[in-house]
Amino acid sequence: MDLELSESELAFQAEARAWLAANVPAEPLPSLDTAEGFVLHQAWEAKLAAERWSVVSWPKEYHGREASLVEWIIFEEEYYRAGAPLRVSQNGIFLLAPIIFEHGTPEQQDRFLPSMATGERVWAQCWSEPEAGSDLASLKSSARRVSTSSTTGESGWVLNGQKIWCSRAALAQWGFGLFRSDPEAQKHAGLTYFLFPLDAEGVTVRPIAQLDGEEGFAEVFFDDVFVPDTDVLGAPGDGWRVAMSTAGNERGLSLRSPGRFTAAADRLLALYDERPDPRVADRVVDAWLKAEAYRLYTWGTVTKLKDGGDIGAAGSVNKVWWSELDVALHETALDLLGPDAELESRWLDGYTFSLSGPIYAGTNEIQRNIVAERILGLPREPKGVQK
Amino acid sequence: MKFELTTDQQDFAASLDSLLAAADTVAAARGWAAGDHAAGLKLWERLAEQGLTMLATEASPVEVCVAFEALGRHAVPGPWVEAAAYLPVALGAEVEGVATVAMPRALDADVADAVYAVVGDTLHTATAGKAHTSVDRSRHLFDVTPGDAVEHGDLAAAYDLAVLATAAQLLGAGERVLADAVTYVKQRKQFGREIGSYQAIKHKLADVRIALDFARPLVLGAALDPTPRAVSAAKVACADAAYLASRTGLQVHGAIGYTQEFDLSVWITKIRALVTAWGTPAAHRARILETLRSA
Ligand SMILES: Cc1cc2nc3c(=O)[nH]c(=O)nc-3n(C[C@H](O)[C@H](O)[C@H](O)COP(=O)(O)OP(=O)(O)OC[C@H]3O[C@@H](n4cnc5c(N)ncnc54)[C@H](O)[C@@H]3O)c2cc1C
């Protein structure tokens, strides 16, 4: 048992650290949920990609470095320690790319991955619907088979319905989501996974302002939107299985690498040094301690994955931990700020965003159900009433 | 980078676990609580034969943690932290027989062959005086009077290993309470359903699983590099997680859990005692903050 990095991993770390130190913007970029900030974040993605830092674990032909899992975590740690910007491409590179690699055709890989790596094309995840949140498989948006499109002559599908809470959809170029392609099939069967441009004919995107006032997500309406067969990801009817292969990523490692929290805990300690308050001291310690536990836990996960294991239901353990840690960490910072806490600041932004953590990527109630049922083996929830 | 027990360490854990599972440790703990030390001392001998008392000097802190997790899981009575973690490092040699040290009171001094006390920066022999009753009936605590100073090694390192061993013991105890609670809620029915099918119960137990899962890597991390900060972090996290396990375990059992006769009581009271033994959570948090701020 050891936590030692190899020579080549240390060299990778040094290279990443040096590059980030030289290139991370000195001033924080404006929020990526604003039109101005979005473009600046895209430019940052392009800069990362030019030196193969945007998707370090990807193959070289798609702007990657073929970095190992360990190196990827190292990179993330360095990235957040350097105070680098949030990743405007995260939905694509962390949620969609893994399934394009796993389920996409070679043609789809060539067509979609490069522009994702460079940040040129930003993706939105269109899963939730007004009536289908936690119970995602109850979604109603439909896909109807058409043998030939009236406009292009290709065979494909016509999408109808509404998606909601799609992060960054107001500014993103493409979306990915699930639609019910077989109304006769059982709830989880008969769903198909589609990729589509958000400016396609029949698509209407309506931005929705979040708690902080910014239009961070949007609802997306589909009115007879044609999607060719070449933009179906995985087999028709297999969408649930395809989609679930990313849900684990979202809850587990990819969206919330420990670097974010160890870096935030370090900033919290610096804040404590500026404004020491013994009444808050224990919570400062707990925030550091929980970030440290998460860091070490992640190395355990990495060991498991390297040995051929998968994250499975442990992704739910992970998700509850990082989301609650994020809230606690920011609440503690606000307490240290005292009466200044209500004033606009980076801590306040972080706090507001942290509040959504226990909701998105599967609410923490749903994650606790998964932990209880799949890890502790407790009886399943009684089946709900079907409408 | 391989942050996981080696096969040898896993085998060691499994063999200790099966030895203890077969040994009726609860009877030994109950006997010990009642002042009948026979079964507990026999168990002590068998564990010493397995090498438990030499781990601190001959093996690594990882093996020490593996052993103490097993001791906690099975509620093995006796001054194990004192004799198998603190004193071997403090004295620089494996302890023969049963020994204890006052921190601030001496655990089980009545059965110990040797009793020690720390006075400032020095280690002394000591004699036991007045006895105190602990929340954990199997912990007999004694005031001591220090005698002659004895030669000693690194007392700070000894303290840190004892803290880490206590953390591992708490982790084992917490795991045990969770396992027993899960078994119980799958059997017990109310309103026509297993109580474990109710979300209020499920979510409480899920939180215990999550807390223990994130306490364990702090123990292993501290075992690889037992700095004061790392061992304090392990102790705080394990105390919090095990205490949550004990509170939750009690709650899901209902009144039966509140009886001394039911075995759960052995762990609930032990966890409560260990939360404050070898440094309270407040003291360890203060130590962590100090090391972080001077970093
Ligand atoms: C900031 C943010 C970004 C998001 N980004 C995206 C995105 O990019 N794409 C996308 O598709 N979606 C996105 N979402 C939506 C998110 O996935 C959903 O909000 C989430 O799945 C919950 O669904 P809901 O909001 O409909 O709540 P509901 O499912 O209605 O839940 C409401 C409450 O009831 C609880 N509840 C529901 N079912 C149960 C149950 N069985 N047991 C116990 N409690 C239950 C929930 O835990 C929650 O507390 C985002 C949400 C937020 C907040």
Structural commentary:
The complex is a heterodimer of chains A (387) and B (295). Chain A is built from 11 helices and 8 strands. Chain A has a 4-stranded mixed β-sheet. A 4-stranded antiparallel β-sheet of chain A has the order 2-3-7-6, with no helix packed on it. In chain A, helix 1 runs parallel beside helix 3, helix 4 runs antiparallel to helix 5 and helix 9 packs antiparallel against helix 10. By secondary structure, chain A is an alpha+beta fold. Chain B is an alpha+beta fold. Helix content of chain B is 60%, strand content 13%. Chain B has 11 helices and 7 strands. A 5-stranded mixed β-sheet of chain B has the order 1-3-4-5-2, covered by helices on one side. Chain B has a two-stranded antiparallel ribbon with strand order 6-7. In chain B, strand 4 (122-133) and strand 5 (140-150) form a beta hairpin. In chain B, helix 1 runs parallel beside helix 5 (61-73) and helix 9 packs antiparallel against helix 10 (264-276). The mean pLDDT of chain B is 97. Classes of the chains: A alpha+beta (387), B alpha+beta (295). At the A-B interface, helix 7, helix 8, helix 9 and helix 11 of A face helix 7, strand 7, helix 8, helix 9 and helix 11 of B. Flavin-adenine dinucleotide is lined by residues 125-128, 133-134, 165-167, 217, 356, 359-360, 362-363, 365-366 of chain A. Residues 125-128, 133-134, 165-167, 217, 356, 359-360, 362-363, 365-366 of chain A line the site of flavin-adenine dinucleotide (FAD).
Write the layout of secondary structure elements.
The complex is a heterodimer of chains A (387) and B (295).
Chain A lengths: L6 H17 L11 H16 L18 H13 L8 H14 L2 H13 L4 E4 L15 E5 L9 E12 L6 E7 L10 E7 L5 E6 L8 E12 L3 E2 L5 H13 L7 H16 L6 H26 L7 H24 L8 H9 L9 H12 L12
Parallel strand pairs in A: 1-4
Antiparallel strand pairs in A: 2-3, 3-7, 4-5, 5-8, 6-7
Chain B lengths: L6 H15 L3 H9 L4 H12 L5 H4 L2 H13 L6 H12 L7 E4 L3 E2 L6 E6 L2 E12 L6 E11 L4 H33 L1 E2 L2 E2 L4 H26 L3 H26 L10 H13 L4 H13 L2
Parallel strand pairs in B: 1-3
Antiparallel strand pairs in B: 2-5, 3-4, 4-5, 6-7
Bound molecules: flavin-adenine dinucleotide.
